TrEMBL record:
Organism of origin: Saitozyma podzolica
GO biological process, one term: formation of cytoplasmic translation initiation complex
GO molecular function: mRNA cap binding; translation initiation factor activity
Biological role stated in the UniProt entry: mRNA cap-binding component of the eukaryotic translation initiation factor 3 (eIF-3) complex, which is involved in protein synthesis of a specialized repertoire of mRNAs and, together with other initiation factors, stimulates binding of mRNA and methionyl-tRNAi to the 40S ribosome. The eIF-3 complex specifically targets and initiates translation of a subset of mRNAs involved in cell proliferation. In the eIF-3 complex, eif3d specifically recognizes and binds the 7-methylguanosine cap of a subset of mRNAs.
Name of this chain's protein: Eukaryotic translation initiation factor 3 subunit D
């Protein structure tokens, strides 16, 4: 028997370009672009007939019919779209009378992508009591600086983030329509800034400093100590309300004035996740960096940089919400810094505390020394560009000039959101696996620990005492135990966390230049709550007056 073979017609592209000739292309395919291919594919894989329905790993209905042909595109990198994405949309058009399947633009997210991302007024004292806060000024307004709310949207990440809704955080301050945005700076630009600053000049010292009790260095998991409630008056006064800074400003001692807590947030801005805001008040040729009443600077965040940080909750009994944990951490730090002071030690008082009034206060002062230090931010030798910073130290060790700052990390319920099911129990493993615990804290609290290191360096502290405080019962946020205390040199701790002081000074100088180029008035620097960037706004002079001021849409009470 003779078999006849007929050669099928060959499409000859006369113009010499790649692909079928437009003159011979069937009319139903006219106007459809040629499907691109992945750059990672081999040259012999230009034509790819891969159908997701036939993918055996996806359990396609016809997977068994393809067999070995599945390997044609199996080598493409997982989670990576083909070069010139959206070809699936272009070839996925199916005619329908209401044309619901028609799509001009692919607005969806590619797989694997992620979104770019006390307690009182500016002049009041800070005294956090168990279960609440009190002092002068406005009431507790936790929402904003450290709050976060669940929301939908965003892309998918790795296995742990698969099909998980992205969180939408609230801004620390309500952006009014009257505000004018002047500058927008993303964190990538901030990382590139650097400025070398020499050792500062000490201008003034005020307050009362007491000695650190070395017995706390011997605390461990086998010799834990309960955290005590100690009534001591501690202040967190904003820059413009500081009488000593007011005197230095009248003397034209510097161009910029700030406190270490405000300045550390700005210097560590690229590590921030939660929103914050700094009020910039330009008066003549001077600039004052202030905190806002009801803002986030009076509280300490918890696991801000964690992969799954604590979420806010409207349930006031939820002790593991972002607001509750922040209040708990602030309460722990205030009491721990007072508890480590040695009884009967000699007090060092170069000059009285500028914020304390014996006639109005009934409780004793906490150990705290305010050091007013001037740093030269000039770029050239002839340029005078100084900043005065009010820094704080909590105690002294041995000699009165051996300054110590005291901070505390707190452990809560690891099973709650914001914790980690793989986290080590501090009360069992801190002595034997302290390195792993510290590494976890540096990861989950990168912004907080970096700020503490910068504050200690600005204050000229020789040591930074870090306490490890755990709940006596994970379900009880009222009782705590001290399970360990560790000493660090601030510069070594900053180096271990890859904190660059020169980068921080570069950020400060850049923001100061931007503000001083503007006319006299009030401005606000706001960290975007959901993206890695900061924005500078021009605001009315009465934007944050006590009467009528709003925070996150709620009237200050």
């Amino acid at each position: 028997m003779t078999l006849n073979f007929t050669l099928p017609p060959i499409q000859d592209n006369e113009d010499g370009s790649w692909g079928p000739s437009t003159s011979t292309l069937p009319s139903q395919f006219q106007g459809i672009p040629y499907a691109p291919f992945s750059k990672s594919d081999k040259i012999n894989r230009i034509a790819d007939w891969h159908d997701p329905a036939l993918d055996p790993s996806a359990g396609g209905a016809r997977a068994g019919q393809r067999g070995a042909n599945y390997s044609v595109s199996a080598n493409r990198r997982p989670g990576r779209e083909a070069y010139g994405a959206s070809e699936s949309n272009a070839f996925g058009y199916v005619h329908d009378e209401d044309e619901k399947s028609f799509s001009l633009v692919d607005s969806g997210r590619a797989a694997g992508q992620k979104r770019a991302m006390p307690i009182r007024g500016r002049g009041g004292r800070l005294n956090v009591a168990r279960g609440g806060a009190r002092g002068r000024g406005t009431g507790f307004a936790p929402r904003g600086g450290f709050s976060s709310r669940g929301g939908r949207g965003g892309g998918r990440g790795g296995y742990s983030d698969w099909n998980k809704p992205q969180r939408t955080r609230d801004s620390s301050v309500t952006i009014s329509p009257e505000w004018q945005m002047l500058e927008e700076i993303d964190f990538a630009r901030l990382y590139k800034l650097n400025l070398n600053v020499e050792n500062p000049e000490d201008l003034e010292s005020a307050g009362t400093l007491q000695s650190y009790d070395k017995a706390f260095d011997r605390i461990n998991t086998r010799n834990e100590k309960p955290l005590e409630i100690i009534g001591r008056v501690r202040y967190n006064v904003s820059t413009s309300d500081d009488p000593i800074i007011g005197q230095l400003a009248e003397k034209k001692s510097a161009h910029i004035f700030a406190t270490d807590s405000i300045l550390s947030v700005l210097m560590c801005a690229p590590r921030s996740v939660n929103s914050w805001d700094i009020v910039l008040d330009r008066r003549g040729d001077q600039l004052f960096l202030d905190k806002r009443e009801g803002g986030p600077f009076d509280f300490i965040t918890v696991n801000e940089n964690a992969q799954d940080p604590p979420a806010d909750s409207d349930d006031p009994t939820n002790i593991n919400s972002a607001a509750s944990l922040s209040l708990e951490a602030t309460y722990i730090n205030q009491n721990f810094s007072s508890q480590v002071i040695a009884d009967g030690g000699k007090a060092y008082t170069p000059s009285p505390n500028p914020f304390y009034s014996p006639e109005d206060e009934t409780e004793p002062l906490a150990s705290c020394l305010y050091r007013y230090r001037k740093f030269d931010l000039g770029v050239g030798e002839d340029e005078e560009f100084d900043i005065v910073v009010r820094t704080e130290v909590d105690a002294y060790a041995g000699k009165k000039d051996n300054f110590v700052t005291v901070k505390a990390l707190n452990e809560f319920d690891p099973r709650a959101q914001g914790g980690s099911v793989k986290a080590l129990d501090w009360r069992k493993n801190l002595d034997t696996q302290k390195g792993a615990i510290v590494a976890g804290e540096m990861k989950n609290n990168s912004a907080k620990l970096a700020r503490w290191a910068v504050q200690s360096i600005l204050a000229g502290a020789e040591q930074m005492k870090m306490g490890y405080i755990s709940r006596a019962n994970p379900r009880d946020a009222q009782r705590h135990v001290i399970v360990g205390v560790q000493s660090y040199k601030p510069t070594d701790f900053a180096r271990q966390m890859n904190v660059s002081i020169t980068n921080g000074w570069g950020i400060v100088r850049t923001i100061a230049d931007l503000a001083l180029k503007q006319p006299e008035g009030k401005y606000v620097l706001v960290k975007d709550p959901n993206n890695p960037m900061i924005r500078l706004y021009s605001v009315p002079d009465n934007a944050f007056d006590a009467e009528g001021a709003t925070v996150d849409g709620h009237d200050d009470m």
